[in-house]
Amino acid sequence: MFKRLKGFFNQTFWLAVLPLAIPIALQNLLMTSFRLVDTLMVGRLGDVSIAAVGLAGWASFLVELLAFGMSSGAAVFIAQYHGAGNQEGIRKTYGMMMLFMVPMGLFFTIGVALFPEFVMKIFTEDAALIAEGARYLRFACVSYVSISVNLAFSTLLRCTEQVKIPMWTSGFAAAFNAALNYIFIFGVFGLPAMGVVGAGLATAISSLANPVLMFVISAIKKNVLIAPLKQIFALKGFFKEFWSRALSVLLNELFWSFAIIGVNMVLGRMGTDNYAALTVERTIEGLVFVFFVGICNACNILVGKSIGAGDIEQGKQYAWRFLVFTPLLGIAAGLLILGLRYPLVGLFDLSSTASHTARTLLLIFAIDACVRYIPYVEVVGIFRAGGDTRVGLITDVVSHYVFILPAVILAGVVFKLSFLATYIIMLAVDDVSKLVITIPYFHSMRWIKPIVVQTDASADREEILLQNETESGIL
Question: Are 429 and 401 in contact (CB under 8 A)?
Answer without folding.
Answer: no
